[in-house]
Amino acid sequence: MKVIATGKSSTHAGAPNTRKRKSLWTALALGASLMAGVVGNVVAAGSVNTTGLAVTDKTVTVGILHSVTGTMAISETGSVEAEKLAIEQINAMGGILGRKIEVIQEDGASDWPTFAEKSKKLLEKDKVAAVFGCWTSASRKAVLPVFENKNGLLYYPTFYEGLEQSKNVIYTGQEATQQILAGLDWAHKTLGAKTFYLVGSDYIWPRTSMKIARKHIENVLKGTVVGEEYYALGSTQFGSLINKIKLKKPDLVFGAVVGGSNVAWFKQLNAAGLTFKKQPMLTLSVTEDEVLGIGGANVEGLYSSMKYFQSLDNPNNKAFVEAFKKMHGADSVIGDVTQAAYLGPWLWKAAVEKAGSFDVDKVVAASPGIELKTAPEGYVKLHENHHLWSKTRIGQWQKDGTAKIVFESDLIEPNPFPKGYQ
User: Fold this and answer.
1) Residue 72 main-chain phi, psi, to 5 deg
2) Which of 86, 142, 145, 355 counts the highest number of beta carbons within 10 A?
3) What is the 3-state secondary structure (H, E, C) of the chain?
4) How many CB atoms lie within 10 A of CB 120?
5) At residue 14, does pLDDT exceed 90?
6) pLDDT at 260
7) Which of 285, 379, 341 is nearest to 131 (CA)?
8) Right CATH number for 3-173+312-389 from 3.40.50.170, 3.40.190.80, 3.40.50.300, 3.40.50.2300?
9) In which band, very low, low, confident or very high, does the pLDDT at 4 lie, cut at 50, 70 and 90?
10) Which residues, at least 6 apart from 13, have a Cβ–Cβ distance to it below 8 Å?
11) What share of the chain has pLDDT > 90, as a percent?
């Protein structure tokens, strides 16, 4: 894989350009067994690309667009690593339609206008066939008009609030009905939660997620929201909020704080003696990536609602974890969005080969119904609404930084526009 990184170099510990790669070819061999696929015969570029994309007889170029600097680097670095692993594995198998994948990587730098600027550059100047990128809903909303105007194709890996469906986006993370509603139902039934304090970062995903959560709590669970607060991205002072939670004593704190703010938030909770044994909390935004920065001791007992945890016990995941660690280092971790990011290149590969073309319209048309039976999370299928069928899992964080899975749902059909929640 040829990588051209045109964004700023990351100073974030563990960023992709600073991690040592170990036993690369062993990892690639594992990937080949993990995601077996059929590589078609090489067809002339003109036959598989009629829209001027960066496709030659030997290569196809894609973009990777994530934050590897700024407050969101703690969350997005894993996505870059997973996408590169998938691309390396696909190339080791012969590529797509006989072409090796080359990558142009850009840094969104945790800044939404920068995401829009970089996406325009990738589509207009570089003519990439697909982009794997974004994390926050703010970054996705910033680039969406660009992809729709330029007819680009984005594979978006983050769990999000739903209420969106675009021809130009494939959503590989969960939407609200799969993560939020299932998580709240579990907390109500298992923990007996009737009073809730809602906490989030101050941008579209947390605010919309909490709007959906409030409606579900009040209208379906017949519970009460006793507090609701939001903090700017990068905030590090949560003392006032912690005092309010102590005063209100909710049955459950329902959280959606993202990025580097999580480190200060959970360390301050622990320092204030508000352990999760005393004050139960269910979060939508803490994965293994965040726990690595927060420290296991500061999240012990915390619950997260996700579709994937690194500790998931199945053969697909064991092979994936081994390959990831061999490529990116034994100390690297894999969170929910990292795994969802890994699915993007494989879903794109399957759609391109089904379509027999790299043209965006043909790839999009071929996408619904595609299955990955060997996905690390177990099994996924792409719905006609461009979201994945997936399971919801509740993990309880242990002191060693791993998640003990305490609940697993059946496969949940994606429903980005649920009635009564808009």
Assistant:
1) -90, -5
2) 86
3) CCEEECCCCCCCCCCCCCCCCCCHHHHHHHHHHHCCCCCCCCCCHHHHCCCCCCECCCEEEEEEEECCCCCCHHHHHHHHHHHHHHHHHHHHCCCECCEEEEEEEEECCCCHHHHHHHHHHHHHCCCCCCEEECCCHHHHHHHHHHHHHHCCCEEECCCCCCCCCCCCEEECCCCHHHHHHHHHHHHHHHCCCCEEEEEEECCHHHHHHHHHHHHHHHHCCCCEEEEEEEECCCCCCCHHHHHHHHHHCCCEEEEECCCCHHHHHHHHHHHCCCCCCCCCEEECCCCHHHHHHHCHHHCCCCEEEECCCCCCCCHHHHHHHHHHHHHHCCCCCCCHHHHHHHHHHHHHHHHHHHHCCCCHHHHHHHCCCCEECCCCCCCEEECCCCEEEECCEEEEECCCCCEEEEEECCCECCCCCCCCCC
4) 17
5) no
6) 85
7) 341
8) 3.40.50.2300
9) low
10) none
11) 82
What pLDDT score was predicted for residue 25?
39
Annotated domain spans of the chain: 3-173+312-389, 176-306+393-408
Q: What does the pLDDT read at residue 333?
A: 92
* % residues pLDDT > 70 (the chain): 90
Mean pLDDT (the chain) is: 90
User: Which pLDDT band, with edges at 50, 70 and 90, does 139 fall under?
Assistant: very high
Residue matched to tokens 């939508």:
284
Compute the chain's Rg from CA coordinates. 21
Give the tokens for residue 145. Answer: 């008009």
Q: What is the mean pLDDT of residues 36-61?
A: 76
Mean pLDDT of 154-158: 98
Which residue carries 């829209």 as its tokens? 51
pLDDT digits (tens, 9 = 90+) for 93-128: 999 999 999 999 999 999 999 999 999 999 999 999
- Equal fold, 3-173+312-389 vs 176-306+393-408: yes
Question: Per the structure block, which two tokens stand in for 404?
Answer: 């003990």
Burial 234-272 (b: 16+ CB within 10 A, else e): ebeebeebbeebeeeebbbbbbbbbbbbbbbbbbbbbee
Residue with tokens 């209420």: 163
